[in-house]
Amino acid sequence: MIDIRPTSAQDHQLFVETMHAAFALFVDPVGEDGTGAWWSAFEPERGLLARDADGRAIGTAGAYTLELTLPGGRIVPVSGVTAVGVLPSHRRRGVLTAMMRRQLADLRARGEAVAVLLASEALIYRRFGYGPATYTRALTVPRHKAALTPPRSGAAEPAGTVELLHRDQAVDLLEQVYDRHRRTRPGAVSRPHRWWARGAGQPPIAPKPRYVALHRDADGTPDGYASYAIEDKRSLVVDETVAATDAAYTALARYLLGHDLVQQVVFRHVPPDHPLPWQLADYNAAEQGKHTDWLWARVLDVPAALTARGWSTDGELVLDVDDPFLGEHHRHLLTVRGGEASCVPTDRAPDLSLDISDLGSILLGGTLPSTLVRAGHLHAHHPDAPARADALFRSDREPHCLHWF
């Protein structure tokens, strides 16, 4: 028998220890308040604890209270699912399935249309209705190939400055710049103040030694930063580059690529549409790392999710959506006019049939419906349905999520 109950602040230590044991990790020694630990921003009241018949803790599932930016700059509340694990001694007994079913019911009760997570293993979460929605990769540029193309003849150099700071000097500014950035990028999620204050997560949130290149515009307003450190005495590794404008990004790239006494610059986490290869004098100088999934999305309320995002093209689609994990099947008429959508039940013949996980993949515009039709995930009932769906769901910017949770 499996008992699943919500946690409270009194369960915090047990939750942390059980979650670490599920991943064969050890709890890092930290101060009494946990500040500086990657898990120190856990929200105890949002956790679930699974217990066996003897009352022993055997599994955990948690969630952060976040915001997600959708295409069109729309922002919606989401739950960032995290700390999902089952002790090795109790796997393949239905514990994970029971926790995920309970958690989805709780998230729906909160009135949220979408949940998100970072998948430790791609095979696990699709069966619970999650689909990969944003992608990321690394770019490595050897210093001897790091020359940037000069500005077009007659073009003025953008005004602005780059200031070198230590991470501890810049936390408040990093928080401000990131928040400005995430509101403009589809797929980006918020970093609540609690994360920065507690040093929870990965650099530059975590209080690890880092240099910060801070860009200010012509008026002196911070509008971009790059967090970096030298690793192995030869690689300048950039945790993330955040910029509100193309000018700020270019200035930061020039600063990083011009750093002395390194053999290469590694941009660890960049979107698929990153402009750097086009800015280099040698297009092939940027060695592209593994293209991988990052943020996964789970649609909890189809009409609410589709009407929440912005749209750049008018049109209609009838979507036949199957949600096998929750035992649901609905057909919706999606109508877009002037950037706004309505989504209502319909008996009309479908244009596309799809699984709820695939709807999560196309929601942010990072995966084209036609790609999933060709892959056999979506079934098109009319020859023109994939092209019409592509035109509707395409985002004005490639979705990208920097945040690790």
UniProtKB/TrEMBL annotation:
Pfam families named among the record's database cross-references: Acetyltransf_17 (PF17668), Acetyltransf_9 (PF13527), SCP2_2 (PF13530)
Highest taxon, organism lineage: Bacteria
Any single biological process term in GO: aminoglycoside antibiotic catabolic process
Keywords: Acyltransferase, Transferase
Domain N-acetyltransferase: 2-147
GO MF terms, alphabetically ordered: aminoglycoside N-acetyltransferase activity
Residues annotated as catalytic: 125, 405
Binding, acetyl-CoA: 84-86, 92-97, 120-121
SUPFAM superfamilies: Acyl-CoA N-acyltransferases (Nat), SCP-like
Subunit structure: Homohexamer; trimer of dimers.
Protein name: N-acetyltransferase domain-containing protein
The organism of origin for this protein: Kitasatospora setae (strain ATCC 33774 / DSM 43861 / JCM 3304 / KCC A-0304 / NBRC 14216 / KM-6054) (Streptomyces setae)
